[in-house]
Every structure is written in structure tokens, then in C-alpha cells.
TrEMBL record:
This is Helix-turn-helix domain-containing protein. PROSITE patterns: HTH_CROC1. SMART domains: HTH_XRE. CDD domains: HTH_XRE (cd00093). Coiled coil: none annotated. One of its GO terms (molecular function) is DNA binding. Residues 16-59 form the HTH cro/C1-type domain. It holds the Pfam family DUF5753.
């Protein structure tokens, strides 16, 4: 369990204890509160000490039992800030990469509009099979996870069918350094750059490239996805963050807009891609 996750759970526990002790119906002991709720006393203790994650129903029952039902929205917001949104790669990849890709297929399939920022590798929605294969092989070696390369590649390629459905829109921004990153053999990268050249002008894709010499009004940060303004995902080495609160989603959308202000599109984007490809041809 991540340190940040545990710290957030302990903070929530301290808030629960505070509500119990300062209850307007009279300061309650842990045993008294457990009796009111019909819980074992150990559950009250675990919740207050951050050793158990409460449910929405637990929080609602707690606030009503201590005479503070109006505090429930605050507690629920705290819970939603960390509950199951720190998705460690160790747990996600326990059964391999293919199941993770299938989960992503379902999430993307439900979405109509994607706003994505990538600054490390070509986005999976536009990857060639060989490029994806190299990324999965290197990830599996690094993470020492189950080796299901072909299943993972097939699932990622299946996701790209989304691009050919009416009413879908991928708004993708990539930093030019992505085009130069040698995460695969040169011939594979050449084919990948050709693929990017080909998607410029697709009805469902708006591809923007932030050139190496473009002025940046915000540090490049980690790559992230915004799905229909309802979910943001951010990838880090140890975990994937899933963020659903409106304020955070709005923050990432502002960041995307800032990066978009430095990007080039259309023929200008094709020229940037061609520049990287010419270097590979040499």
C-alpha cells in the first residue's frame, strides 16, 4: 500500500475520531459508538486508526450516530480522494498486461471524447503493433510481470477500433521528444512515425505536436488522459492514478489547454514528424 494512500486513510480516521469525541449528543467512547451502530468495537478502532477503509455507508452511519449528518459530504469527498484510485502496477499486472489492456478498452469504449498529453512514448491509440510489442516487452522485463506480450498487443490494437466509430474524438498532444525516443529498433520507429503522418487529418483525430524549441508555459509533467471530463488518469512508475473529482479534472484540462497553446497541427505537425524521420533515415 502506498505511503500517500495510508496517510490519507489515517487522516480520515483522525477526523472520524474527532467527530466521535466532540459529538453534540455527548462525547462517545468507541464502545458506545459501536453499540449504537451495531458494529464490533474493533471496527471502530480500525477505522479511527487507519487500518480499514470505510465505505460510503460506514461514513453515513457514523455521522448520523454522532449527530453530525451534515458532515457526510466532507467525509465522502475525502474518501473519494484516495479510495481505490491509487492503482498499483504490482496489483494490476498480477495476471499480466492483457487484462489491464482489456479494462482500458472498456473504459475508452464508454467515452466519446479524449484529451491526452504524452511526453514519453507514442500514445497507445496510435501505436503500431511492433512499437507496442517493444514497449510491452521492456515493461515486462522491468516489472518482472507475467509475459503475455501477444495478448497485450492484440488488446491494444483492438482499442484502436474506437478511432473509426462515428461520434468519437481523440485530441492528442505529444511532445516532439516522443518522436525521437529510442524505445524500439530504428526500423520500428520509422514505421511508427509513418503511422503518425497518416493519421494527421483523420476526422476523429486532432494530433498536436509540441516542438522541442516551443515555449512552454508549464513544465511537461507526466502524461495523462481526460475521458469525457469525468475521469483523469495519470501514469507513474509505481501506480496509475484515477481522479474523478471535478476540481482536479478541471485542473488537468487547464494543463492540457496550456500545452495545446504550444502545439502545432496539420501540415506543421507533419513537418515536425518528418524531421525526426529524416534523421532516422540517415
Amino acid at each position: 500500500m502506498s505511503t500517500d494512500y495510508q496517510r490519507a486513510r489515517e487522516e480520515l480516521g483522525r477526523r472520524l475520531r474527532e467527530l466521535r469525541v466532540d459529538s453534540p449528543v455527548g462525547g462517545l467512547t468507541g464502545t458506545e459508538l459501536a453499540q449504537r451502530l451495531g458494529w464490533p468495537q474493533s471496527k471502530v478502532s480500525k477505522l479511527e486508526n487507519g487500518r480499514q477503509t470505510p465505505t460510503d455507508d460506514d461514513l453515513r452511519a457514523w455521522t448520523e450516530a454522532v449527530g453530525r449528518p451534515a458532515v457526510f459530504p466532507e467525509l465522502r469527498a475525502r474518501l473519494k480522494g484516495f479510495e481505490s484510485h491509487i492503482r498499483s502496477w504490482r496489483r494490476q499486472l498480477a495476471a499480466g498486461h492483457a487484462p489491464v489492456q482489456e479494462t482500458w478498452n472498456a473504459i475508452v469504449g464508454e467515452s466519446r471524447t479524449l484529451h491526452v498529453w504524452d511526453n514519453s512514448v507514442v500514445n497507445g491509440m496510435l501505436q503500431t503493433a511492433d512499437y507496442a510489442r517493444n514497449l510491452f516487452e521492456r515493461s515486462m522485463e522491468f516489472r518482472r510481470s507475467a509475459r503475455d506480450v501477444e495478448g497485450a498487443v492484440q488488446a491494444r490494437m483492438k482499442r484502436q477500433e474506437w478511432l473509426y466509430r462515428r461520434g468519437k474524438r481523440l485530441n492528442l498532444l505529444m511532445h516532439e521528444s516522443v518522436l525521437w525516443a529510442r524505445v524500439c529498433p530504428p526500423d520500428v520507429l520509422v514505421a511508427q512515425l509513418d503511422r503518425l503522418q497518416g493519421v494527421v487529418g483523420m476526422n476523429t483525430v486532432d494530433l498536436g505536436i509540441v516542438p522541442l524549441d516551443a515555449e512552454l508555459r508549464l513544465s511537461r509533467a507526466n502524461g495523462f488522459w481526460i475521458l469525457d471530463d469525468r475521469l483523469v488518469t495519470v501514469e507513474d512508475l509505481h501506480a496509475e492514478l484515477w481522479l474523478e473529482d471535478a476540481e482536479t479534472i478541471a485542473l488537468y484540462r487547464r494543463a492540457w489547454d496550456v500545452f495545446a497553446g504550444s502545439a502545432v497541427h496539420g501540415a506543421d505537425a507533419q513537418r515536425v514528424i518528418a524531421r525526426a524521420r529524416r534523421e532516422l533515415d540517415r
